[in-house]
Amino acid sequence: MLEQLEQLRLEALEKLAAIADGEALDGWEKRFIGRKGAVTEMTRRVGELSKDERPEFGRRVNEIKQALSAAYEARAATVQSAEMERRLASGALDVSLPGRPKLLGRLHPSTQILRDIFRIWGDMGFQVYRSPDVETDENNFQLLNIPPDHPARDMWATFYTTREGIILRTHTSPGQIRAMRQYCPEPIRVILPGMCYRYEQVTARHETQFYQVEGLAVGNQITMSDLKGTLSSFTRRLFGPERETRFRPSYFPFTEPSAEMDVECILCEGKGCAVCKQTGWVEILGCGMVHPVVLQNGGYDPAKYTGFAFGMGSERIAMLKYGINDIRYFWSNDLRFLEQF
Ligand code: DAH
């Protein structure tokens, strides 16, 4: 039986030396030194021997079991590191591979231009005042000196709601009434940004919704030259100091006198093109001295207070600044357009 034992030892070592993977290694462990393995079986057969032979055999079995266990550990370590080498060499994990790019969103061009505009007015001491998109006919028209059925209403194609007297604001000017009624009799310096809505045929220059940024200054010594100087500072900062601007007399029911401001066409540098309709100028805002009736409606005594106001279309300004020739790009959500900003 000692001989059998020796055979077993040799066989086990031979098999172990040939093993190259973890699975085979587990199999070997079970077969030879596990709880039901061949070497363990041998210890149970000790009863078949004579009393004299037993001690020698027992010692030898234990020796062999220990030697095989040690050989097993050593082999396991070699197999493991060989497997690791093989995995690295086969390139299952290539640490030099570039990562997948994260798609980053960006600000809509309308938001970008609004932020530029807010920053400039903020530096001049104008704070942002928000007023609602859904307005009363009274704020949107009547208190701005536009009575019902007045022909001036034709300037604003209006979206009506099913509620009598409730409309979508056609401009940000009704916010002037709200700001005046809140701050009266304090002086005011605010800008009022917001979406406006008009029942228009959509074309390259007209949309049914667009942003306006309204401005309002009320105090006891505000003059037309303040209006002109303030707006000139604004356009110089927004378009650069070399860009020409001009004021033109105009008409709005809520200002007297009224004006419009034009900027030299950026696309043709004033030479004349399709965008500026060959005039070399593009209108960017309406403005004027707040009409005494409107001041009164806001709670201010027109004998003591004066003010100026303006309203600009920010998409129109973005179009000029970035050379965009169709306003429909802004809300058509075409990534090829949006990704350019
Ligand atoms: N609300 C006018 C419009 O939508 C623009 C405007 C003109 C606003 C003159 C003003 C202003 O505050 O003084 O066409």
List keywords for this structure.
341 residues, alpha+beta, BirA Bifunctional Protein, domain 2, 2 domains, seven-stranded mixed beta sheet, two-stranded antiparallel ribbon, 11 helices, 40% helix, 18% strand, binds 3,4-dihydroxyphenylalanine
Could you describe the 3D structure shown?
By secondary structure, this protein is of the alpha+beta class. The protein folds into 2 domains: 2-90; 109-338, BirA Bifunctional Protein, domain 2 (2-Layer Sandwich). It is built from 11 helices and 9 strands. A hairpin with a 4-residue loop joins strand 6 and strand 7 (255-264). The termini are far apart. The mean pLDDT is 92. Residues 171, 173, 214, 252, 255, 286-288, 309-311 line the site of 3,4-dihydroxyphenylalanine. 3,4-dihydroxyphenylalanine (DAH) binds next to strand 8 and strand 9.
